[in-house]
Structure formats: structure tokens, C-alpha cells
Design brief:
heterodimer; A: 545 residues; Glutaredoxin; Rossmann fold; five-stranded mixed beta sheet; B: five-stranded mixed beta sheet; 16% strand
Chain lengths: 545, 238
């Protein structure tokens, strides 16, 4: 299909819109609290009330406030309902028809949780039906891809991404433009684009939400990347634990193919790009790019030493561009609105927005997309609503098992790659776990070490054996059987595992321990055997007999 | 063929482009300990013993997979590297069940040699005493998983040289182990050609030829009795 036909489809879709759209979230979070039934009952109630001409009920992606699901929104009326049960559907529709209050928990769509967000990646999340390409086209979908192919050379696209200042959203924050340029400059031949959707950090679910809420956006980002670097084949590596994301991706790929947006001769141009899905088998380490490539190739998912980096020699030995879901989901907007627009958002070194999944001891659990540079305090206290029951925030864990804990007194730190790194944590993929006074930081460290111990692939010794030893030491400390010498040994191990492990998993596995030791060392020392010598006095520790 | 020159521990050395630092060090007469490297098969950079420090690079890099480049300044022995190597070996000893005194490879064991080389006299880590299996289902060979350090040399020789790919790795992290076939008893694996390359590749006593273990030593005490009887009673019966 050529572009004018697609514009026509978008126009038809726009004209077919009814006056009032009732949005019901059908993402995993809300589905778990029965939102499918809610949607069914809403449809039935609308029909019953004879409102079919004016009102349409739309199953949409994630509006963000996952802790209060199922969420039903009626944007034209400024209404939002939370924790909706199927039985409340009728009352919501009758309130819409006759005015008055519905018998459902009413939320405030202007709460800072929503109003302080800047939505780029999630601009369509919670607004369009992710299972219909027509709605994505209506929301200016695939315009970025069209713009790239027809009005820009591949080099100009790379240039635009470089200019935007976008950095990888998967964890390390590597400049996306530089990565693209490296792959683009490799000699022509087989090249690949891989979308890393193997999101595995405990407490992180933004990539799942993006895939479930706006799958076409990721496909568009990948196709633009393919055009820019000269790749004609893309893979989405998505974990098997995300069945809804997988099914929506399948549907989206099929729809895009049928409309001539993916496959051979996109929009009738000479550009080809196909996308296939590869489903992971549940190994966290497969989020590491070289392990991911091994897994896509059908091998055992273990990392290999870099260099060579995948940009030079990746899938099947060919130059391969690997970007995370959120990174790719930023691309269409950058192409559509320009690099200057994007680089005006955020801080000097971290441009754009970042989605965080805010969980733990916090009132408003869910996903927020905020401009880089916002303070942690604003996220936790204003948007998140603080600790339920009036407790006090003790620390925030960012970056999952590769990140660290940031204590309450540093909450005014702006959220960007470099500030968080300075504090001994990382941005990571965007998991943010809020902890209150009742949380033992040693237990937190032990939890993450248990995770790493179970997820290390076992290839290199420091990670395989070191995580086990660290976990044992942390357990010993928690059981109050440890001495100061054990804490010293733990510190030595942290340094060694970080310095000598083969891949990022091992190199960052000690981070939760090191950061809690740094900010909350007294919690460790309080758990030591009373007669032990504290490590600070330099004497030889003696184990009490 | 181009040549690059570099410094290893302040020794100037010239090697062909594409040479690994491990080979370049050999050329310079510098020994770097390794356990997973084996001449003739591909390198995996897994044991981390050959990590070296290169001027201008913040990370330590494994010598076995890092190519020598012009002007590189490599240091193979620093107090930090020595400490890390010792910790790696200590971790290996704490991780498996390594009892030299009853091992077929005693005094012919690379793990033992490396332990001596890095100056490890004890391990500061808790011994884990894992329960691991011994598979002696193969008519000629056996594998004692207690002594396996997961260097994957057997996997690589079998795949890359013999072409049989009998060996592979299964499981993750502490549960990782080398397997034969589809995790079958070795003796049931039809693909095994009984070539014995894995035995030759194994750095420890994990994969061994049958009849060489301490337990299999068979002392023929009856022979003494037989000889005495033969000499004194002229009866050549046992």
C-alpha cells in the first residue's frame, strides 16, 4: 500500500470515531484484576442504554496507574474510574447518559501522577487500541518511517538520532546515535536489527507495557533503524513470560505486513524490512546482548567476551544493532518531531524522557514517564504519593540487580544517567523500588544476590562462584553469625566479582551490596556478633569462642 | 603479514598481527596462568585467570581473546591481579569437591599447578561440599563431576576437533554441569567415538581413563602366597 492509501485509512478511522470514547485498560496489570470482564460489561451497558451511536468502548493499553486497576477513562468528560468491578459498568454508563455520580471509585486524572508526566514513548498508551493498526495510523503512526524513507538518506537518519542525544534505555546509557553509526558504517552486506525485549529486572515492567500498549511504535522504530543502518531483517527477542506482549506483537507484525509497511518494498519504496519474533526461555542473562544473540541463533544463552561488539560482529557474525524496547519506541517521535524538539527535553547529558516502574512501599504503584532531570523526591513524594500509612521513605532501589539503593537524604538528586552513577546506582532499565523504615537493607542486598546467584549462567568463575559466596556471607550476616572479618571478605568479593566477571551481569551483581554497605553500613554492623571487632579499627578480627 | 610490537611487563616483543596476548606473552617468555585455554581449540575467556592490565583501558581483559595491537603496554602481574587470581582458584576449590590425595590427577593436575603458582595454601571461602555424580557408564572412561571446574575444554575438543559434540553444558549458575548427549549416561551416547580427546583435554581428574583411579588400584597379595607355595611345595596352583 502506498502512503496516500494509508492516510486514507487514518482519515476513515478518524471519521468513524464516535463522540465519546470509553477507554478500558486491557494490559496485563488490569487484566489480572478482571478488566476484560469490565470491558465486556461496559459494551453491554452501552448497548443496553442505546448509546451505540455516540459512545464506543475501546480496549486500550496501559494508562500507567497499575496499582489501582482496572482503570476506565472517559477523556472527553475528564473522568477516570479506578478499581472498577464488572458490576459497576452499568452505573458508569448511566452516569455518562444521565449525569450524576457513578457508583465507582473516581480517580483524579489531573493528579501529579499524571499531570507531571511528559509522554513521548507512552504518548499512545492508554489512548489507542493496541490491536488495531488503524488507530495507530490515526495517531500519526508510521509517519516517522515514511518521513525517513522518502525524505532522508540513511546517513541523515543516523545524524538525526545522534543529534537528538538519545541514549540507550536498557541500562548502560550508551549513545544510540553512535551505536547506529557504527553499524551503518560497517561494509554493506547482511546486517540485523534486534529489539531487546528480555526485560528481567525484578520490579521493572515498562517494556512490557510499551509492547502491550503500542506495539506498532516498536515496529516502526525498528524499521527506521533498519533503514538507517542498512539491515533488512529484524528480530524481537521477547521473554516468554510476556504472553500478551507476544500475541500483540504477532498481531501487529501481521497487520503491518498486510498494509505493506513491513516486508518487501515498504510503502512501495525499494526498502525492505521484515521482523520476526524470538521468544526467550526465561534466562535473565539473555538480556545481555551477546547472550541474547547466542539465544537467537539457537544456542545456549551465554555471553561471550567483547570486543568484538555486536555492532561489528553480532548475529551470525554480521554487524548487528541491538536496542532496547524503550529506545526504539523513542525513534518514531524523534523522526516525526525532529531532533531539536527531543533534545530540548531533559538535561545536558541525558535527553528526553524515561519511563519508571514505581513499586514497593508507595501509594501510587505504576508506570510514569518523566523528563530526565526530575528529582527522585518529586517522583516518590509528589507523583507517587509517598509511603502509604504515613511511613517514611528510607531508600529507593534503582536499576534492579545491577543497581543500587539511594538513601532518603539524597532524594533531591536529579534523575539522569550520570547523577545516578555517581551515587553508586544506575538508571538501569527503569525499575524503582521504594522502601520504607521497616525494610532491612541487608535483606534487600541478600534478595538481589539471591536473584543473581540463580541467574548467573555459570560460564565464568567469579560470577558463578562469587555470587554464591556473597549470598552465603549475606545470609550469615542476617543470621547474626558473622564477624567483622566476614564483612571485609564481602567487600573484597564485591570488588573482585565486579572487576573480573565476563559480562555485565557479574560486573554489576555486587552493586546492591556495595551501595547498601556504603549508605547503610551500620545495619550490617548491628547484625555482627557482639564480641566481634569492628572493621574500622584495623585490628585483626577475633571470632568469639 | 603485518607485525605489531608491544610491551609485556616492560619486555618488548614483536608478533604477527592477530596474535592473542596470551601467545604474545609466551613469545616474551612471560607465563600467564590459564585453565580454560587449550591450544588447538577456540577460546571462551571463562576462567578469568589470564586477565591482564592494559595501559589506557579501564577494564581488565582476558589475554586469551584479546589481540595484541601496536604499542600496547601490558602488565600481567600486579598485586591486584595476583589477588584476583588467587581468589578465582580459591573459589574453584570451595565450589567442587577437590581432594588431591585421592585424585587420579594428583601431581598431573592443572588446577593443582595453578593453585601452587598463585600461592594458594587455603581457601578463605566456605566449602560448599556439593552433591555431585560420578558417571562410569562408559566402558573406557568415567567422569567425576566433583572435580569438574566447568572449563568446557571437553565440550570444545569434542565439537571442534572430533566433531562428535557429545559434550555440552546444562543448567545455570551453581547448577551448571557438563553433560554427555542429552544429559544421558555417557555409556548410552551413541555419538561418542571413544576417541579419548576429552580425557586428554581435561585439566583436572574429572574425566579419566578407567583403571587409573586410586580406588581401582588392585594389589595382588595372593601372588605372594602363590609364589611361596610354588617354591616350597612345588604346586603351581592358586
Amino acid at each position: 500500500m502506498d502512503w496516500s492509501e494509508l492516510i486514507e485509512i487514518a482519515e476513515q478511522e478518524r471519521n468513524a470515531q464516535k463522540a465519546i470514547r470509553v477507554h478500558c485498560c486491557t494490559s496485563t496489570g488490569c487484566q489480572a484484576t478482571n478488566s476484560i470482564e469490565v470491558k465486556k460489561r461496559l459494551v453491554a451497558a452501552v448497548k443496553e442504554a442505546g448509546l451505540n451511536a455516540e459512545v464506543q468502548v475501546v480496549g486500550v493499553g496501559c494508562p500507567g496507574l497499575c496499582g489501582q486497576g482496572p482503570i476506565v477513562e472517559i477523556p472527553s468528560e475528564g473522568l477516570q474510574y479506578q478499581k472498577v468491578t464488572p458490576d459497576q459498568a452499568e452505573s458508569i454508563v448511566s452516569a455518562l447518559q444521565n449525569g450524576g455520580e457513578a457508583d465507582a471509585l473516581q480517580g483524579d486524572p489531573n493528579h501529579p501522577f499524571f499531570s507531571r508526566q511528559v509522554r513521548i514513548v507512552q504518548e499512545n498508551s492508554g489512548k489507542i487500541d493496541p490491536e488495531r493498526i488503524e488507530e495507530y495510523l490515526m495517531a500519526e503512526g508510521y509517519q516517522g518511517l515514511h518521513h525517513a524513507i522518502y525524505e532522508m538518506t540513511p546517513a541523515e537518519v543516523v545524524q538525526e538520532i545522534t543529534k537528538s542525544g538519545l541514549r540507550g534505555r536498557g541500562g548502560a546509557g550508551y549513545p544510540t546515535g553512535l551505536k547506529w553509526a557504527t553499524v551503518a558504517k560497517m561494509p554493506p552486506g547482511s546486517k540485523y536489527v534486534i529489539c531487546n525485549a528480555d526485560e528481567g529486572d525484578p520490579g521493572a515492567f515498562m517494556d512490557r507495557s510499551v509492547l502491550e500498549s503500542d506495539p506498532h511504535r516498536v515496529l516502526e522504530g525498528m524499521a527506521i533503524a533498519g533503514y538507517a543502518v542498512g539491515a533488512t531483517q529484524g528480530y524481537i527477542y521477547v521473554r516468554a513470560e510476556y504472553p500478551l506482549a507476544i500475541s500483540r506483537l504477532h498481531k501487529a507484525i501481521q497487520q503491518a505486513k498486510r498494509k505493506g509497511i513491513l516486508g518487501a518494498q515498504i510503502f512501495g519504496s525499494p526498502v525492505d524490512f521484515t521482523i520476526e519474533i524470538r521468544v526467550g526461555a526465561g534466562a535473565f542473562v539473555c538480556g545481555e546482548e551477546t547472550a541474547l544473540i547466542a539465544s537467537v541463533e539457537g544456542g545456549r544463552g551465554t555471553p561471550r567476551p567483547r570486543p568484538p561488539y555486536p555492532a561489528v560482529s553480532g548475529l551470525k557474525g554480521c554487524p548487528t544493532l541491538i536496542n532496547n524496547v524503550e529506545t526504539l519506541a523513542n525513534i518514531p517521535a524523534i523522526l516525526r518531531k525532529g531532533a531539536d524538539w527531543f533534545s530540548n527535553i531533559g538535561t545536558d547529558t541525558s535527553k528526553g524522557t524515561k519511563i519508571f516502574s514505581v513499586t514497593g512501599k508507595i501509594r501510587n504503584t505504576g508506570l510514569i514517564e518523566v523528563p530526565m532531570g526530575i528529582s527522585l523526591r518529586e517522583i516518590v513524594e509528589d507523583m507517587g504519593g509517598g509511603v502509604p500509612g504515613g511511613g517514611k521513605v528510607k531508600a529507593i532501589q534503582t536499576g534492579g540487580p545491577s543497581g543500587g539503593c539511594i538513601p532518603e537524604q539524597l532524594l533531591d538528586t536529579p534523575v539522569d544517567y550520570d547523577s545516578l552513577k555517581k551515587l553508586g546506582s544506575i538508571m538501569g532499565s527503569g525499575g524503582m523500588v521504594v522502601m520504607d523504615d521497616s525494610t532491612s537493607m541487608v535483606q534487600v542486598a541478600q534478595f538481589y544476590m539471591e536473584f543473581c546467584r540463580g541467574e548467573t549462567c555459570g560460564k565464568c568463575i567469579p560470577c558463578r562462584a562469587g555470587t554464591v559466596q556473597m549470598y552465603q556471607l549475606l545470609t550469615k550476616i542476617l543470621n547474626q553469625q558473622a564477624t567483622a572479618a566476614d564483612v571485609e571478605k564481602l567487600k573484597e568479593l564485591c570488588g573482585m566479582v565486579a572487576a573480573t566477571s565476563l559480562c555485565g551481569l557479574g560486573q554489576t551483581a555486587p552493586n546492591p551490596v556495595m551501595s547498601t554497605l556504603h549508605y547503610f553500613e551500620n545495619e550490617y554492623l548491628e547484625l555482627l556478633q557482639p564480641a566481634s571487632v569492628r572493621p574500622s579499627n584495623g585490628k585483626v578480627p577475633v571470632r568469639p569462642s | 603479514m603485518s607485525v605489531v610490537t608491544l610491551k609485556i611487563n616492560d619486555i618488548d616483543v614483536a608478533v604477527e598481527a592477530g596474535t592473542t596476548l596470551l601467545d604474545a606473552a609466551k613469545e616474551a617468555g612471560v607465563r600467564i596462568p590459564t585453565l580454560c585455554h587449550l591450544d588447538g581449540v577456540s577460546d571462551v575467556g571463562a576462567c578469568r585467570l589470564c586477565l591482564v592490565q592494559i595501559e589506557g583501558i579501564p577494564k581488565l581483559l582476558p589475554a586469551c581473546v584479546t589481540e595484541a595491537t601496536e604499542g600496547m603496554n601490558v602488565t600481567t602481574e600486579t598485586p591486584e591481579l595476583q589477588e584476583y587470581r588467587r581468589m578465582v582458584v580459591e573459589m574453584l576449590f570451595a565450589e567442587g569437591n577437590h581432594v588431591c590425595a585421592v585424585c587420579v590427577a594428583n601431581e598431573h593436575c592443572e588446577l593443582q599447578d595453578v593453585a601452587i603458582e598463585v600461592g594458594m595454601d587455603h581457601t578463605r571461602f566456605t566449602y560448599r561440599f556439593p552433591e555431585r555424580e560420578v558417571d562410569i557408564s562408559h566402558p573406557q572412561f568415567g567422569i567425576d563431576h566433583n572435580r569438574c571446574i566447568l572449563c568446557t575444554r571437553c565440550v570444545r575438543v569434542c565439537d571442534e576437533i572430533e566433531g562428535a559434540h557429545v559434550w555440552d553444558v546444562s543448567g545455570r549458575g551453581p547448577a551448571a554441569k557438563v553433560i554427555t548427549g542429552l544429559n544421558q549416561p555417557w555409556g548410552d551416547v551413541d555419538a561418542c567415538t571413544a576417541c579419548g580427546k576429552c580425557v586428554d583435554a581435561c585439566p583436572t581428574g574429572s574425566i579419566f581413563r578407567k583403571g587409573t583411579t586410586v580406588a581401582e588400584i588392585d594389589r595382588d597379595r595372593g601372588k605372594l602366597d602363590f609364589l611361596v607355595t610354588a617354591r616350597e611345595e612345588k604346586k603351581w596352583t592358586r
